[in-house]
């Protein structure tokens, strides 16, 4: 019996068999495919009982609803099943009663992207692909790099020549072959696409590869289980290309259709003011993305054209979603507030969702008793340079108790 | 019934009651105290059955043998129970059969130190201490900062004025009060000690606080459980002040005395060549530490006088320990090898233990079938600047398939 029914185009709805590796032939790269499962079949396996007796504390506990036929490509790195904290000190501060923070910076390479990579690498191995590639300078790149190293898979990562050296360093440490492209990110992306076609490499890009988002949806499954199947009213996430929030929405929908949960959350898309194509388009109730050069400190979500735009619009429409735009100042301020009330230090893109929550609270758009879950998608150590902009270095003092008394005002 | 019998001086062996907060009155700060438990009592609670039925997947699963009377100070941050990987690709590369890597960079603030801080903060809360302090610029500081933020505990961190801004930033993000001391680390340490006495703050320093190492020992407990109570022949760790390896040794000894394991590992202390006071002293079979100005890229273990020297000498003597010194080049090279064969990216001090393993293999001092466990104590993202020294940035190329073919030699 097969788990997967077919792959469906997220733009036009056309169905494809699993022999199609990437996007819809008619819509091109805009038509990313979505994996549609035989949920009646899966229902017989994936039950609350099954989950309760499952000792695997990583995303592979959801194997019955992951797009893999075999376990050969499963990484030893422990990915997923990240902590979900009830943020009590934060609740008091914000005068809310039910805030849950999922710290996905605790993944192996310190970001949410590891969920996608784990599935992508496993699929590459299942398909006997010997080489995998990606264009990125950010979390997708370091994630691919680390997982490929762990599994011993050759990999090429296309990076724009101007990318920060710190980010390139991590890829080189892991032994990736870094192709430093004379050009910007878009050039690197297109070049990677071309090279993948030419050399038959497997492309780890959520924009065209339908399986990566299947890893992302597991964050929703975990939230369901960690909240004992009581679904939060709102699920807040930072949004760039759109595949992360779309993946998480897919997860909730699947658990709903499997009868494991009895309601769905409202999805809240938070974007940076300077990079908000998804939110703009959704608010206009349109399906056309107009381009603006993106500009935000939150580099992982600094997106001009959202490469998974239709998936995220679908998610927002289906969940009667909400959008919030936040400024860079609000993002940096949110970084401090989150760290100071929960101990979770997130990178700018990782805390953009939280900045959105703070804005909703300020506007009075959240009821006290409403339950809110949000995912922090990357560790603050990934971008300490940005964090520096959020704080002020103190003056130095002499090692003298009198001076100290004055300084701290005791 | 009381868990703790007494506190024992690690230098002279004198016993103290729990009313003593810090070090031995006769030996001064050299006489750090060690918590001695009533193991006959604990034996009745902490059994294999107890552990098997314990669903807590963090270090609090060992509560029966942790120095806390109550759960009030337990942090919501999920600390400990980090993954232990059987490193199969590495085994093949090194022609060994049993290598286990414990990735403690997966802790909340990305280092092994979180184990100590979790217990230290809980103890501070139990003792009704309102303010906690430390002198550090490294992992102990960021760890204290993050956990104190999570628990809402006021804290002062004494930092030498020359400390890297990136490290200070994290403390400021968490909202710690940073005292930037006009002087070096030793000045900051002494000033912190004085201020703690003067103002009654609780001091989070493994050098004088007996409870912190109690958190560290839990790594040993986890290794025992994760290996199904089959103890590795060698336990390899990076060593600076000495309290981490001493803590882990204490963990093994306690499980041995509780009858949970039937043998003990040989402890292997790996230090940087330029900061090896523990290894020098042990090899001379001495108990006198001679001072040399420390110099190594591995800043967390760059130590001139080991502040927990007697504890680590005891651990090495009791386990017939082994010492290895490694150069900075070997540390940087080990960083790459570890990342490339396991996907685990460690900071320089985090992979120094692994550099020691590589050296032992090179010297032929490890048998193929021997089992070796090693702890990676900190995430590589903590010190990307050092990682940059280990790799070379590639040349940039034009986005052209012909160029790419030439470049990658296809």
Q: Specify the CATH architecture of the domain at 84-110 and 212-388 in chain A.
A: 3-Layer(aba) Sandwich
**SSE series of chain A:** EEEHHEHEHEHEHEHEHHEHEHHEHHEHEH
Rg of chain A (CA only): 21 Å
How far apart are the first and last residues' alpha carbons of chain A, in Å? 72 Å
Number of strands of chain A: 14
Low-confidence residue ranges of chain A = none
- How many helix segments of chain A? 16
Class derived from helix and strand content of chain A: alpha/beta
- Major beta sheet, strand line-up of chain A: 4-5-13-10-11-12
- Multimerization state: homodimer
Largest interface: A-B, 79 and 79 residues
Q: Please state the overall shape of chain A, judged from the principal axes of the Cα atoms.
A: globular
- The overall pLDDT average of chain A reads 95
The CATH class label of the domain at 84-110 and 212-388 in chain A is Alpha Beta
Domain Tryptophan synthase beta chain-like PALP (chains A, B): 77-378
Organism (chains A, B): Clostridium rhizosphaerae
Function (chains A, B): Catalyzes the gamma-elimination of phosphate from L-phosphohomoserine and the beta-addition of water to produce L-threonine.
Pathway (chains A, B): Amino-acid biosynthesis; L-threonine biosynthesis; L-threonine from L-aspartate: step 5/5
């Amino acid at each position: 019996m097969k788990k997967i029914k077919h792959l469906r185009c997220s733009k036009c709805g056309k169905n494809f068999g699993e022999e199609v590796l990437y996007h819809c032939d008619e819509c091109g790269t805009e038509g990313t495919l979505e994996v549609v499962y035989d949920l009646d079949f899966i229902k017989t396996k994936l039950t609350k009982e099954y989950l309760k007796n499952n000792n695997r504390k990583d995303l592979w506990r959801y194997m019955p609803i992951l797009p893999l036929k075999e376990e050969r490509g499963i990484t030893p790195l422990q990915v997923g099943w990240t902590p979900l904290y009830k943020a009590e000190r934060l609740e008091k501060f914000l005068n809310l009663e039910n805030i849950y923070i999922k710290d996905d910076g605790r993944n192996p390479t310190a970001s949410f992207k590891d969920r996608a990579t784990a599935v992508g690498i496993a699929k590459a191995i299942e398909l006997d692909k010997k080489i995998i590639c990606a264009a990125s300078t950010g979390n997708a790149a370091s994630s691919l790099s680390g997982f490929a190293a762990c599994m011993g898979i050759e990999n090429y990562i296309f990076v724009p020549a101007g990318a920060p050296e710190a980010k390139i360093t991590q890829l080189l440490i892991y032994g990736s072959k870094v192709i430093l492209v004379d050009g910007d990110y878009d050039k690197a992306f297109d070049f990677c696409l071309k090279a993948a076609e030419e050399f038959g490499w497997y492309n780890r890009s959520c924009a065209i590869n339908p399986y990566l988002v299947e890893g992302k949806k597991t964050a929703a499954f975990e939230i369901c289980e960690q909240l004992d199947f009581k679904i939060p009213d709102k699920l807040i996430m930072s949004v760039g290309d759109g595949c992360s929030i779309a993946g998480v929405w897919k997860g909730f929908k699947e658990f709903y259709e499997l009868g494991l949960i009895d309601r769905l959350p409202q999805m809240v898309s938070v974007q940076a003011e300077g990079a908000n194509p998804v939110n703009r388009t959704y608010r206009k109730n349109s399906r056309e993305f107009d381009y603006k050069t993106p500009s935000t400190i939150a580099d992982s979500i600094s997106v001009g054209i959202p490469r998974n735009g239709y998936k995220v619009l679908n998610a927002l429409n289906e969940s009667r979603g909400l959008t919030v735009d936040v400024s860079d100042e609000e993002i940096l301020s949110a970084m401090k507030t989150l760290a100071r009330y929960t101990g979770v230090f997130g990178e700018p893109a990782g805390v953009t969702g939280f900045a959105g929550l703070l804005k909703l609270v300020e506007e009075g758009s959240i009821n006290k008793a409403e339950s809110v879950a949000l995912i922090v998608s990357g560790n603050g150590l990934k971008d300490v340079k940005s964090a520096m902009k959020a704080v002020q270095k103190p003056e130095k003092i002499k090692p003298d108790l009198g001076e100290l008394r004055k300084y701290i005002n005791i």
